[in-house]
Amino acid sequence: MDWIAEDPTSPEGNRLLPGISMKRVKTYIVRACTEGKSGGSPTGVVLHSFGLSVKEMQYIANRSGTSHTAFAYEMPDRSSLVKIRFFTPAGEILNCGHGTIAAHYVRAIELNHHPNREFLFQETKEGIQKIEIDFEDHDYQIWLTLEEVKITTPSAQITERLLDALNVSEPDLSSQNSIAMASPGSNRFLVGLKTSDLVNQVYPNFDQLKKLDAACGCIGCFVYSVDQQDEQLLVTARMFAPNIGVYEDAINGNSSGCLAAFLLKGSTTDSLNMVVRQGQMLGMNGRVKVKASKVENRIEVKIGGTVVVDHEIYIQLGS
What we know:
By secondary structure, the chain is α+β, with helices and mostly antiparallel strands. The protein folds into two domains: 4-146 and 307-317, Diaminopimelate Epimerase, Chain A, domain 1, CATH 3.10.310; 150-302, Roll (Diaminopimelate Epimerase, Chain A, domain 1), CATH 3.10.310.10. It has helices at 54-63, 97-111, 156-166, 196-201, 206-216, 253-265, and strands at 4-6, 14-16, 23-32, 41-46, 68-75, 78-88, 91-93, 117-124, 127-136, 139-145, 150-152, 179-183, 187-192, 218-229, 232-241, 246-249, 271-278, 286-295, 298-305, 307-317. It has an 18-stranded mixed β-sheet that branches. Strands 1-2 form a two-stranded antiparallel sheet. Helix 3 runs antiparallel to helix 5. 45% of the residues are buried.
């Protein structure tokens, strides 16, 4: 049987090309969680990805030139459910916040949907998650509701190893309780520092950090500072994730949501709004918007952002 091939000259998009045993897969290259129209995290997006094997998705992720690539397709019998998988050059990961935002933004553009608000669900390796698509001022804003974020405190020994791997001294910490392990499905460390300057000065020992992450079952470490505490928190952050092949992630939406859950858990308020600035050290200034609220005995977290589509490429798979 011949492969389904993408013909870039064809208005129909995917179609079977007789006698040609190869695939040309259309891949959008976008910037997710931008600051206005600038910055953001370069991300690959492949729609209509049904039928691609794990090996093929990994090949595309390796060739996209981005840190993360999202593969999405709709279930034929459930138009409100989108299946989505995420790959880095090092392999498949359970979920990706900015990859989710990127994929649903591209999907909304391709479908040319213009309702003021649309609700749907996505199925990832972590489970079923709610998506909201807002359309205002002629652009889309994508919101992802995270799985419940679980917060734990690392042991003193783990904390010491973590600070050593980050080359951070204890007096630079924002408080005695500024280090946590947070998971909406995948663990990551949260480390709070006193100022954004200290955050931007962090230079980890990646070999040590990778070994510690592997030992603790973590994808990486989210270093942050709370810079402004008005009605909307303003946070500066950096994400180091050598364990999944991303030494510094320009944007990490899920970690931004984890931080909101952590901060709200220790607060007397019932909700918070937050903007997390990331990517500054990579020249990719971006913004993740976060809404968190206490609902009964848990904390509900939504992360959001917008996207700029840069261009499309066609990645050819082998025969």
